[in-house]
Batch of 2 targets.
Target 1
Amino acid sequence: MTQEKLLSLRNLTLEVAHRGVEVVKDVSFDLEAGEIFGIVGESGSGKSLATRALISLLPPAIRKIAGQVIYKGRDITSMSEADLRRMRGAEIGLVFQEPMTSLNPSMTIGRQLEEGLTLHTNDTPAERRKKILAMLERVGIREPERALSAYPHEFSGGMRQRIMLASVMLLKPALLIADEPTTALDAVIQRDVMELMVELTKAEGTAVLLISHDLPMVARYTSRIVVMEKGAIVEAGTTEQILETPQHAYTRKLLSSLPIRGEVRTIDATSAPMVSAHDIVVDYPGRKSLLKKGVPKRALHGVSIDIHEGEVVALVGGSGSGKTTLGRTIAGLVKETEGEILFKGRKRDADWQDYRLNCQMVFQDPYSSLDPRMTILALVEEALRLVPGIDRAAKTKRAYETLEEVGLGPEYAPRYPHELSGGQRQRVAIARAIARRPRFLIADEPVSALDVTVRAQVLTLFSDLQKRYGFSCLFISHDLGVVEQVADRVVVMQDGRIIEQGDRDTIFDTPKEAYTRRLLSAIPALDLNETGGVKLKWRLEN
Amino acid sequence: MKHFTLNGLIGGVLVAILLTVAAIGLIWTPYDPMKLSFTARLAAPSAAHWLGTDEFGRDVASRLMIGARASVWIGCLTVGFAAIVGTLIGMISGYARGWIDGVIMAINNALLAFPGILLALGLLAVFGANQYGIIFALGIAYTPSMARVVRGAVLSLREREFIEASKIMGNSEIYTMLRHILPNCLAPITVLSTSMFGWAILSESALSFLGLGVPPPAPTWGNMLAAGRPFIEQAVWLGLFPGLCIALTLLGINLLGDALRDKLDPRMRGLK
């Protein structure tokens, strides 16, 4: 093929100004018109900075020291600001990760969509309106007329990302840069948005530069991929090559970090369950106004769940399914409106002290779950504060031992959380939860905020600890890949109800409910081959 | 990473000079600040009297030193009062929420609606015009702003996961407040306290200027400024030096406060 290159990046090198640290090193790749191209890398790999350089939108602290960005034969890096402005939007569109912050909250959807058209086209207002309505309809917004005068907060995250996509595609750009476009969305919505993006861009002949840490997701939609690590491209090739015959050690590491199905364990389900929740109903108080009494919003509609000794039960579902509410209710952070919770066969509230000692929790966000003003040692020691029967010295000793167990040596003890990486912080959070030797652990999306390779390490650590101490666990996650690796049993929730539950293998291999099938179709099944590569199979597709 | 800015340094030096002068004033002054001398009335600045003398022949430099002590003392106690009471009220209000928060904030907002100096004037009328009256009045006038800032910090902190983690560990509410919430509020409290220190010194001067502060003959910058006013044409130094002291002190405190805010408030980081 002697097709004209749409965009080529030549030897791009970026550094942090004044400090001389190179954050992007000698990066080159070509993009052809109409193709979908992927950049895969973890945080700190420089993938976002490299793409920002494509449209000369680098943060002020970053300086280009070498390289060219050639777009349709012109070097973008030497263009004037006015030329750049004409090109951004009209020629190159951008979709960012955060649908919550990339739309202006104080402007109606209609006005935001109109902005681009007013700037880059000579359409009359009537034409603009027609185009906008047609585009909103195409991205699947119900009642597009009404959406025009609505504000961003009236839409869910997935809908906002659709609107974002609509606003970019209205101008029919030749290139769409999508930087982690679906990372903030749950699996099912993620897939819908991606399918829509692919469909729209294919119809308009737009090339897509898809940037993500999620290798399977990128692999699903792209024809070629580059893998970046620490600012440099370590491997480039067709998607198939990268997946099936990876050459570089880092690529192999990324692939081997993808979750695979864990072993089948037999759980004694005949004995009385460790934790048992019956017909839990939770109402959140509705918004009250001066004259109107608030109508409570029901988050859980009579949910029952049993967790046996030593069993890991995964609670899965999309956002708004009530899975987090159920976890927090069992933990005692949310008061149930109706229903009862039993612990070791007795009412949970009858011996609250005992329950508090034996039920611990690991939270999703390791940046917010550790008190920033306490040292790592103090954080773990605090978990032992109320444990009866051991003295101070023994508590300190236990804290050090627990840190050791999660892979943090004594040199970490005097540090503060901000000095640690995300993965290390989550290790501290796990250490804090298991220091008391609880019988029951609730883990709310414990690895969602972590990078792929770190996530694999933390999951392995979690499984090891679970085997060693044999605690029961309620594992809440929207990521079915992770669930497949750690869970013994899977409970699927939708709209505050449990719709399906069963052994992990039963749920993953022969799901009954349509919703479960949709969840599963969003994640790949992996076949490892002997070269360290994988073959991705998308489930339930024909 | 830079540890201080030029502005912060200037502010720090000015505040340090103030504190040093106030401390020296405790043990030594060039002349007895109360001693009258009819031979040296309204003397211009000279080698003997660096900053001149006032209408009773008292040494202005000595009186300014004693005045600095009064300013620092009043500033410290006022800020201490507002910080402790305001933090307590703010924490209770932010942590309890619900109707307790509603009642406390209603009173707080009503107090905030009065200009601080007006509120202090009213309170002084009750407590009487003396040093401790001023401290009490200004302290009460400043408490609402402190309470509001602390409440805001607590409201956002209590939604963080580490507060829930503390609950999950079974810690009591009091323990959680003292161990997790209070230390994380210290940054905004410190920053506000610094600017309050400046406001307190200014308000004290203003009240003394109006004759409602520390009564003469005890010197404060405010009542020296007031006393110098009738002689402004014959002896400009009587008004000039106390005025300069007030202006430089406030400048120093504001610069230092800005530097502290940039350093302590993570939201301000990375903006430069």
Target 2
Amino acid sequence: MMDRLEEELRRALTRKEPPEGFTDRVLAAARAHTAARERRLPWWRRSRLVPAAAVCLLLLAAGIALDRHRRREVLARGEAASQQVITALRITAAKLQMVQARVSRPAEGNNRI
Amino acid sequence: MITAAGEFTALVKEHQAMVFSLAYHYLQDRALAEEIAQDVFLLLHRRLDTLESPAHAANWLRKVATHRSIDAARRRKLRPQVSLEEAPELSVSASPGDPVLSERLRQMVASLPDKARMVVVLRYQEELELEEIAGVLGIPIGTVKSQLQRALALLRIKMQRTLGGQA
């Protein structure tokens, strides 16, 4: 009896397909839910393009800032180098004046004798 | 992790009969069973990224469909509309696979107490072992065993009456 009952139960309780169009209704409801969720999101989170564009802009700004920094460094180094050259030229000119002064002194003495 | 929309469609197509039948055999209400099945799949859609594999998704669907059906029965007070004792006797043939006998058996199952009814549905629709049923329902295996034995005893008595001692 138990075997017969269990056998009949298995037969009576076999899986049944849901009514026609069930899959389409579920998929449509899922799409509607996704769309509703998207509408509730703030505008900057609705599309993946917005965060991607923000990242690109950030990278661009960082690149420009880095480039400017490097240019300033090069200019500063150039400025320092030119100052060093000017200082060196000044020192050289002073030394030359001193040498010229020494060279011209004995000539003045000979004239006196 | 399951994420693609195509995978969701495949999961719906593969498991819709299981989810719908669990609700239908438990509640004996086609419209309500469809509503529950749709809710279960929408919940799946929202939680797709938390499920690790198709097998995990199948177990999750079975568990959620089971509990949603039990909740729906409680909420809408879908106690058996016809008790086992009040159910009209039908004259059916004793031939195996008789559709009238199957329908009568479904009515008998529908008249069982809530928990016992779900134990029977999980055992004979889903072919689950007692341990698996205990896992789905969150009750001790001993309780599952006793409820199944009691349910089968009730059904056997009723079936003997229905078949007039043919079985």
